[in-house]
Every structure is written in C-alpha cells, then in structure tokens.
Amino acid sequence: MGRNMTISRSMVALLLISIAMVVSPAVNSLPTGVNYDQISAGGCNCHAAAPNAAVMVTLDGLPEEYNMSETYQVTISFTGGPSAEGNANLGGFNLWASGGEITPLDATVQSNGPSEVTHTEAGNDYTSWSIEWIAPSHGRDVDFVVHVNSVNGDGNAGPEDQWNKLTLKVAGSLGPGLEEADPYKVLATLIIISGILLAVTVLYGFYRTNPDAFDWEHLAPWLTEWLTSTDHKKIGTLYFVQGLFFLGIGGILAMMIRIQLAVPGNDFISQDQYNSFFTLHGTTMIFLAAMPLINGFANWMVPLQIGAPDLAMPRLNALSFWLQPFAALLIFTGVFTGEGADTGWTGYAPYIVTEGAHTGVTMWVAGQIMLVASSTLTGINFLTTMAVMRAEGMGWMQMPLFTWSILVANLMLFLSIPAFGVGLIQVYLDRTISTAFYDISAGGDPLLWSHLFWYFGHPEVYVVIVPAFGVISEVLATSARRSIFGYRSMVYAMAGIGVVAFIVYGHHMFTSGMSPSLRFVTMLTTMLVAVPTGIKIFNWLKTMHGGSLVYRTHTLWALGFLVTFTLGGISGMFFPSIAMDTHLHETYFVVAHFHYVLVGGTVFGFFSAIYYWYPKMTGRMLDERLGTLHFLTAFVTYNGIFWPMHRLGVVGMARRHHTYFITTDDFTNLPEWAADWNLFISVSAFLFFFSNFIMVANMLISLVRGEKAPADPWGGWSFEWMTSSPPPTPSFDWHNPPVLKDANEHIAHEPGRLGQWFNRLMVPEDHEEVSH
Amino acid sequence: MSLITPLYDSLWNEYLVWSLLVALFTFGWLYHHSFFYRSEDGENPNVDDLEVGVFPVHYDDLKLELAWTIAPFMLIVYLTYISWAPLDNIWSSPNGGSFGDECDYFNNESSDLYFDDDDGLKGAYKANCYHTIEITAKQWVWSFDCGTLEAELCESGFTEADGRAVPHLSLQAGNAYLAYMTSEDVTHAPWFVSLGVKEDVLPGQTTTVWILAEDVEDFLLLCTEYCGDDHAYMMAGVTIHS
Amino acid sequence: MSGDYDHDHHAPQPWGPHDWGHGAPHNSFSPLFMSMGVAIFLFGMAEAWSYGTYNPGNIPMILVGLLVVGLSLFIWWRQDLSFDGHYEPIATGVPFRGIQIRKVGVWVFLMSEMMVFTSLFSTYMRYRLGIENCGTVFDRGMFDPVTNPTGWQEGVTVTCFEPASHLIASSWWHIAPGAINTFALIISSFTVVQALRYAKMPGLDDEVRRKKVYRYLGTTWFLAVLFLTLKMVEWFIGFYVPEISAIGLHEHDIISLVDEGYTINADHYQHHSYVDEATGAHMVADIQVSASLFYVTTGTHGAHVAGGIIGLSYMTYKAWLGGYTPKNAVSIEYFGLYWHFVDLIWVLVFPFFYLY
C-alpha cells in the first residue's frame, strides 16, 4: 500500500460525504455525480471492474510548476471508450486536488467542496469540462487525481461502460528539495545520525581509556568484551546507553508530533505519518527507553545492594539485554520502509489485524514479542537473584528500598507480560498465516485483545513507576541524612501497589463496551491505588523532618519528582470516577496525567538516579552547576508542556488526532486560546528536549575530566557504597562476602516459619554431601 | 462556569476542591521542610548515624503511618460515594430506568428531560421516556439513523465543518435519546464533547449510549478510539435545537 | 558459597569451551547470536507470510535465522559441556538458603509459563463460551421463517464454534494418537526421573551410570519425538486401519484434521455430520476461530515439547559422554521440572481440546 493509496483513502471519506451531501437523497444516482466510494474500491465498479486504457484522459491548462495563488483554467477531457455522438449521454468525471481551490466555470460542473469537482446532470452530455484552479499559497507540490467515465448512454451502468484514471503532480515553486523532505526520511536520517553519534561517542570513550592503544588490535577485543560480557555492571551500562539513546529517539518523535500540533490544521506531517509517529513514540519511550533505563540501574545496583557478586544467571542476563536492540531494529523497520506501525502503543484489535493498518505493524509486533521474552527473562533473573543471593544478615526486611522496588516491579512484570506475549503472538499469526483470533467476521472479539493487553498494560505502568519510588526513597533519605521514615510501611505500600495492579486494569476500559459490573468493580479497586501511593508520599515528606537536607542535583530531582508525581497522582484520581472518565477518556487530560507520572515520575526519578549513582558507576563526579541548570530548565519547561494539556483535554481536545478544530460559527469545539496554548506547549517541548542535552554533555564532560569520586560521596548506608568507585569485578570478594549489620539489633538470622517450611520442601536430603 | 453537563460539573468541582486541598497540604509541607530542614552552609550532620554496611535504625511512628493510611482511605471512600450517583444516568436500564421506557408515539408522549438538582447526592437527569436512534461507524465516517422519529426530534444529514463535509445529527433539546451503536470495520468511539459522553463502537457487537440533550448548542462529535489514518477527521456536527 | 572465584581476570572465552574453575559463566557470544537469530527468524516469517499469502522467496531468511539460533545454542552448549557441578551456585538468602540457585530460577520460570497457558486458556474460554456451538446450531435445524427463525439456512455460512473434539472424539481411532501421546508424555516424565535417580545414585559404577543415564534420557527423547510425530499424523497425515476380521476391524482410512477441512481458513466448513438426513441440506460453517484456537494452543504446547527435544538432544549427548555425575545430576532435575510442567499442561490441554 503506497502513499497514493493512503491519500486516496483519505479522499474516500471526504468525498463520499461531500457527494452524499450534495446529491442526497439520491446518492447512487450516477448521472448527477460520481460516487467516490465506488471509485476507490479497486475501480469504479459502477461501470466496469478495472480501468480501461481505451479511455484517454487529458488534463489541459496546468503548468509544470505553479505560481503561488495564481489562477489557472483547466480543461478535463477524454477520448475513446463507448461514448459516441448520438448517445443519450457521454460520460462523467471527478477531479480532486490535494491543494488549492477548484471552482466550476459553468453549469456542467459542480463543486464538492474546495478540493473536488464533479459533473452535473447537464454535464453528462459532454466529453470535456472546464474548471478554474487557484493555486495554493504554501508552494508545496499538488497532486491531481481525475477519474473519467465513458458511457454508452443506455442509461444503465454496466460493464460496457469504461473508465480510466489519471494522476498528475504539479510542482510547487518551493522547488523539489524541500518537498522531498518527507518526515519519514527526516526521522530515518535523524535515527541514523543519532546512531553514528553514539558510535563516535563509544569510539571516543575507547580512545580516552588508553590513547596510546587506539588501533584495531586493541579495539577488537575491547568490542568483543562489550558484546559478550556477562558482567552485571557491563550489561547495566549497555542497558543505560540503550535507554538514553532511545530516550533521544523517542524525543525526536515527540518533537515531530509537537511541530505538527503547534498550529491547528497543520500539514507538516500527514495523518498516517503522525499516527505511526505517536505509536513509535509510545512504544519507544515505554519499552526501549524507560524499561532499559530501569534495567540499567537494576543491573548495576541490585547485586551491589544485596552484596552479591553478580546476578543469579549472568548469561541469561546478557540474553535479556541483547534481545532489546534487535527488537528495536524490528520495531523501527517500518520507519525505514515508510510504513511505520500505526496502531497506537495499545494496538487495539481489530484495527491491528486489518490490512488497513500499515505493513510495519507485523514487524512492530515481532519486535515486541522479543521484548516480552527479554522482560520475562529479566524478571526471572532478578527475582531469583533477590530471593537467593542476599548477603548474610540481610533479611527480606533489610533490603534497600531500591532493591525492594525492583523486586515488586519484576514480580508484576513477569506475571503479567505473558498475557501480552500471547496476545502479540495471536496478532502476529493473524497477520502472517491468517489465523482468526481477531477476525470479526469469523466471530472474533475485539475486547479480548483489550483484556489481554491491559492485564499486562496496567501492571506495566507500575513496573515503570515503582522503581522510581525506590530511587526517591534512597535519594531523599541519603540527602536528608536520615533513615527513611517508615521503612516497613514503604515496603508494604509497594507490595500493595503490586497486588492492586492486577485488579485495576479495567479502568482503561470504562468506555469500551465492557460489562458495567466489571467497570464498577475496577472503579472501586482503582480508587484503592491512592492509599499506598499516599503512604509513600507522606513517608517521603516525613523523612525530611528533622533531617539536614543537602542540596545536590539528585536532591533537586527528587524534590521535583515529589511535586510532579503528586500532581500526576491527583489528576489520576479523576479517572476512577466513571462519570468523569466518560468525558476525559482519550483526551489530552489523559495525556497530561500519564506524562506527569511517566516523565514527572519515572524519568525524573531516574534522572535523580543518574546524578546519584553516576559517580559510583564511573568513578567520576558530575558537575553540580550543570546539573542544577539542567534541573531548572527541564523542570520549568516540562511543566510548560504538560500542565496546559489538562485544560485542553477538558475542553475537548482528543488524543491521537493529527489535528484539532477551533470553534467556528457553526460548531463548538476548542476555544480560540487552545491554539495559543498548543503553540506554547510545542515551544516548551523543544526547550525541554534540548535542556536534557545539558545532562548528556555533563556526563560526557565528567567522564573525561570529572573529579575522582570517593567510595561513598553522599553518605549512603547500603552495600554499593562499600565498594570502590567504580566497583571491581567481581563486585564483592567471594571468599569474604559482606555481612549486613543491623542497627536495630534484631537481625533475622533464622528463617521464619514460612522459610523453614520452604527449606524442608525444597532442599534435597542429600544436599549436604553434594555441596561438600 | 458550566463545563460539560451538570452531572459532570458537580463532580468535577468537588474533585477540584479536594485536589486543591491535598495539593496545598502536600506542597505546603514539602515547601516548609525543604527550606526549614536544609543543611546550613554545607554542614552535614548525620542525623540517624548512617553507616555503610549497617541497616539504619528504624525511624517510624505507627500512629502517623496509620493516620495517613486511614485519611486517604476515608477520602477515597467519600470520592467513590459521590462518583456512585451519576452511574444511574450513565448505565440506566432501557426498561424503566431513570429514563423510563421508549416513548409511546401513539399517545404523543414526550420525553421531557430535565436535571433534578435535588435527586440523590449530586442530582440526576430524569425523563418520562426516551427516543431510540442508531449510530453506525465505519472508517472514517459516522452515519446516524433516526428510524421513524419525526424530523423535529431527530434528523440526520450532512453539513460542513472545518472546511470539509461531515455528517450531521440534529436533536431536540429536552429529550433523552438512547443510541444503539455498531461498527462495520474497526473500533470507534463517538465523543459527544459538550455532553461529556463517549462509548466505544465495536464491530460485531452492539453498544449503547445515553444522549441527554438538555441545552441548545452546536458542537462537534469526535472519534475517540483510534481507528486509522483519518481518525481525526472522523467527526460529525451535532445540533441540539429548541 | 561453594563457588570458587578466581581473582585473576583471565582472557575470556566467548566462543567456549568454558573454564568453570572460574565460577559463573564469563563472556559468551551466545546471547548476541541468539537475539540476532530470533530477530531474523521473526522478520523472515513476517516477510514470507502475509494474511495467509505465501511468498517462498523469504524461506532462506527463516532458515538463516534458525541457523544463527542453532549456532548460538552450539556455543552455549560448548561452554556448558565441561560443567561438572564444581561450580553450582547455592542460595544464601532466606528462605532458600542451601538450595541451588538455578533450581529457584526454574521454578520462577515455570510461574511465568503458567501465565502463558492461562492466557491461552482464557482466550479459549472466551470463545468457547461466547460463540455458539456448531452442533447446537445444527440441531436447531434449517431456517424456517415461521417455526424456526434463528436456525441455519442451506448455503448461508453460520459462524459457530466447532471444537476439535467433535472430530477427534467421534471415534476411538481418531482419539488414538492423542491418547497414545498422553501416555507417551507421562512415561517420559517417569524416564526422566529415572535418569535423575541413576545420575545421582551414590556409589554406582561410572560405566553403569553412564549407560543408565543416557538410555533413560534417550528414551525420553524418543517419547518426545513420538509425541510430535503422532501430532503431525493427527493434524496433517492421517493413517490407515487394515482389515483384521478376527478382531472385527474393517479397513478404512482415518482422515487427518486438515483433510477433514478443520483448518484456520475454514470459512466454508462442511462436514458429513452437518447434513440434514431428511432433506440432504448442508450446514456451512465459519469455524476459523475454533480452528485457530485449537492449532495455536496445542501448537504452543507442541513448541514446548520441541524445545524440550532440543534440550534433551544435548543432554543425551552429554550423558553419552558420561557427563552426569552425582555432583551435577541436579541439572537433569531442572530439565525434569520443565518436562513435568509440559506434561501437566498436556493433561489440561487434552480434555479441553480433545475430549470435551
């Protein structure tokens, strides 16, 4: 399906309506106009099935290259076919132009809106028609599509009649260069440039490690080491780099979206491009940016925090990582072929399995299947590690809160993501070998996909936010030089969120046609989410009480997180109320809410983590002044993007729309000021996008000439601060594993009753002789 | 300012008040602590004697923690309670619910929709009876079928909005309508923006939505379930006349 | 911790073989290649089939993908072959202290596998309960505007649910492959436990142990292959029943499911049991959803068996080399856990898809 077809499909809706309006009620009365719906369906089947070359169509009077806003007289004519002198009528036509304005010159032609004309009943007796075309003022290329019928005049439409089609492109005076700057190509180029920049940065990193050994003989083993490493710190760094890289790519996609929405009715990108851009933006940000960033820190810090030399299954861990970049390649395949996935990250059935969806959807699904495999393996690995490899003295209730958050997140993830995987495989098979899971005509149920997706999708958003809770707990406590307030209630709150996550997903389907009783139940459970989240926020605030808050960059980000996440949490409370959700669903209010929790929550939380743990990971301190500048610019511009969106959503701006409508005399939609706010949002978005490069620059500069970091620069208590910066490999001495002391004197050395039962159940009786 | 409908507005206002209270409380606290407890001129007293490799001393207070478990819980119980009432209007039964039964046209029964402020907690819409219309969606056009309703009550046609021809639905104010909806291809959802209602339209299934035409207004109906290329252009004009 | 970790960071061996004296696996090319292979495979599959249209030009792509995955497995096993149990990480955390870490990992893995089949069964239940059964529709009879306004009508396709069990449970011969498979899997669960038993039996002669272990693992492998073979027979091939009058057998062909028309594209499914005896009218059914469910659910189980066969091939080879001793016999237990799980799933799949 090419671009032309997309355009023609767009025309179908438009023209069908216009014509239907004009000729209503006699919609099918062919002598008075062509029904465009029938033209598009593989040809004008009102006459003959396929276009016939016997009908020669000519379009006279159009220039090679038009002058802006100039008026041209155009003649449409045809020869050939069954039309002949003496027939009752001779033929008809339909002309559509992608730009400018077409007006009829006489009574043989009628207008179907500014971009389209067709013949009138009187015009049926001619073989040529004249119109006037006022060229557009934007100077871009204009496509003309003309369909012509040659009829035998028997008054009936039949296969004896013949038709043909002509498409013509008139160059704009802006010249071909700009016109060819197809946003897909812009995006593809930007991705390639980003990739090259990344490669150059990596090479530079290698050069800096040993400027004397900058040759292939040293590079090859160095690269091999990175490609094959199973060390949790190396893999963590790989995840981290991947996460930041795709944060940039997702950002570029967001910028394209914001350019398009800066003014109403913008045509910077076409609707199908817009649709695939927001789809890829969502998928990239959730799966290829946020999750790898989390996994990067989890890989780095979880073994360090529990005093383990590595993860439980290091090779599996490497597999989890390497599945991701290849999955990303599949997900972006569509972009490079100009047919990016366009289903939204939710990929609702049955659209996702229809042939109307872009071909890139199949690869997008395939890529996500690999991500599912990756996440499942990660979940297994981390759960096992945390369950079995804790150091002496570290019971469940002595684990640092970041480790706890990763435990809860992975528990949610690996129990929910198989449902998504199964759904994806069903869709993949539907799209390839034509199974019928979501084939509506064969009895498929679109809601089944929604259930499978959201059963995963809701825990997934908690998987992304809960690790940020962990980070903030660490950062705030360390910055205030305090023990975290209510360690145990923090753990129970996180566990509570983990449990509730599985029974609230129905709130994504309040308007989906799902059974009202199910909607009502999820309304109640969704309300419950506020309780554990509230506990966490109040505990964080109380942690600061009586402390001595040291303002570092990570402290600023943590305080910023408290502001934005609280706002996101409050706006989230509007959704479980079904009466309001019925209005707010799929609006910019929702967009504002989930960006407040995903950017203001997850991304801010992990920016904090970057400033907090970067010295540990690289052995270099980050620059505090650049960090503060980054925080101030990013925090302000971030709120500039998403705060106005709340209001826009309430007054009627729907999400996933490539354009929006300002109130006219006829119909109310968005007020005038909505356009101004959208422009404001777009400007803020660009500032936010670029402000984050301050952090990237900060990291790169520090890597080269940052101050050397001590083992415990911030005064934290957990094991990672015990190792040197950066830590050695293996991270802890196998012969002298660390032992956690407990300031509360009641160290749980012995397993509890449940633990004893587990031990009896699972330790083989001959275990002692095996291990000795 | 009436945002959408009385049903929605009373909830919205109440939520807004509570949001403000929670936000003021939280941010006031945050603001105070982040300045009051800041470390003076870089000094950094180790309040809880944090030490590497030692699990820090517990800092908790059961009463406080219980307090901010129970307080939010009570708040959400209240918010649930006030969110409860409008459900009667959203999911009213087509047989003897808030809107009675389908109007009996032989006896010239009229719908007489009104908002009863005193009913229940937040008020509710009431009507004697309702009218039935059908909505069919396909990529990317709505079609409205008024059935046998008189043109006064319901009329469908075409109009122009944003420079393009779009379907048009004309309803009479003071009437309750029940729309039976289905789709010919993929999932869509009509959003009656100024009425604050939307419901997905599923292929192969029938869903319903109550259209409570109370005020005289003209507004755009938008598609709010992503349905492909011209999703944003899949709109319709809705006129509620007196 | 019983592992022995070398402090000297020696030159890594990403291609294998692996020096286990240094503890947990070091570098490996396997993860990189496996991911690459899976991506190529999924890409090739999507290029080769589009909505049932087959494009053979992309088959080499699929093969390349499988080849790369094979290469990665080869590297993985090459590193693993020397594993003698000297390094078997043992848990230190409560409540798992003293248990092998990898065993905990397998249990966690099986928990997520449960969710895969739960999702598949949810899909099945949604459609089984949500779409009317073809038999019920047929029983309602031909369409008659007065007496039977909702019945089926000659020549008009009815969308209904046709469980595979309608075909399979129609005769003992049809059910035979599935029944044999059930026993094959149960017996294979037993043989894998026997292999474990002999592998960790203390004081057994090395040669005797080697023979016992590789023979029991080999038997397991054989039974698993038998399972998949019979599945292919049942799906695609069918079989022939000879005339043995002594036991009352009559010569006839047992037709495979695909030949019966039970396919994922069956939008005009006709079956001799859906012919009205009185009028000779045929009921035509669209059963694509039911067939998709049957093939994909049992196919997912089959894919698990196939995965087991790949693992078993390596384990049998290692056993044949005498690689399993009481020290590392627990590796067989890890496989056994997975294999019992696959067996257990079949015990659920069989009644839902073959009997009921």
Biggest interface pair, counts: A-B, 128 and 110 residues
Helix content of chain B: 10-25%
What does the largest sheet of chain B look like?
6 strands, mixed
Task: Examine the coordinates and then state which fold CATH places here, giving the name of the CATH topology of the largest domain in chain C.
Answer: Four Helix Bundle (Hemerythrin (Met), subunit A)
Query: Mean pLDDT of chain B, rounded to whole units?
Result: 89
Count of DSSP H/I helices of chain B: 3
Structural class estimated from helices and strands of chain B:
alpha+beta
CATH topology of the largest domain in chain B: Immunoglobulin-like
> CATH superfamily of the largest domain in chain B, please?
Cupredoxins -  blue copper proteins
Q: Strand-and-helix sequence of chain C, N→C?
A: HEEHHHEHHHEEEHH
**Helix/strand order of chain B:** HEHHEEEEEEEEEEEEE
How many β-strands of chain C, per DSSP?
A: 6
What does this protein structure show overall?
The complex is a heterotrimer of chains A (772), B (242) and C (356). By secondary structure, chain A is an alpha+beta fold. Chain A has 2 domains: 3-179, Immunoglobulin-like, CATH 2.60.40; 229-719, Cytochrome c oxidase-like, subunit I domain (Cytochrome C Oxidase, Chain A, Up-down Bundle). Chain A is built from 21 helices and 10 strands. In chain A, the strands form 2 sheets. In chain A, strands 5-6-3-8-9 form a 5-stranded antiparallel β-sheet, with no helix packed on it. In chain A, strand 5 (109-111) and strand 6 form a beta hairpin. In chain A, helix 10 (401-432) packs parallel to helix 12 (487-500), helix 15 (553-572) runs parallel beside helix 18 (624-651) and helix 17 runs antiparallel to helix 18. By secondary structure, chain B is of the alpha+beta class. Chain B has 2 domains: 6-84, Helix Hairpins (Orthogonal Bundle); 125-241, Cupredoxins -  blue copper proteins (Immunoglobulin-like), CATH 2.60.40. In chain B, the strands form 3 sheets. A 6-stranded mixed β-sheet of chain B has the order 7-8-14-13-10-11, with no helix packed on it. In chain B, strands 2, 5, 6, 9 and 12 form a 5-stranded mixed β-sheet that branches. A two-stranded antiparallel sheet of chain B has the order 3-4. The longest helix of chain B has 31 residues, at 6-36. The mean pLDDT of chain B is 89. Chain C is mostly helical and 356 residues long. Chain C has 2 domains: 1-87, Helix Hairpins (Orthogonal Bundle); 101-355, Four Helix Bundle (Hemerythrin (Met), subunit A). Chain C is built from 9 helices and 6 strands. Chain C starts with 29 loop residues before the first helix and ends with a helix. Residues 1-11 of chain C have low confidence and may be disordered. Chains in contact: A-B, A-C. Chains A and B meet through helix 1, helix 7, helix 11, helix 12 and helix 13 of A and helix 1, strand 1, helix 2, helix 3 and strand 7 of B. Strand 10 (741-742) of chain A pairs parallel with strand 1 (54-55) of chain B.
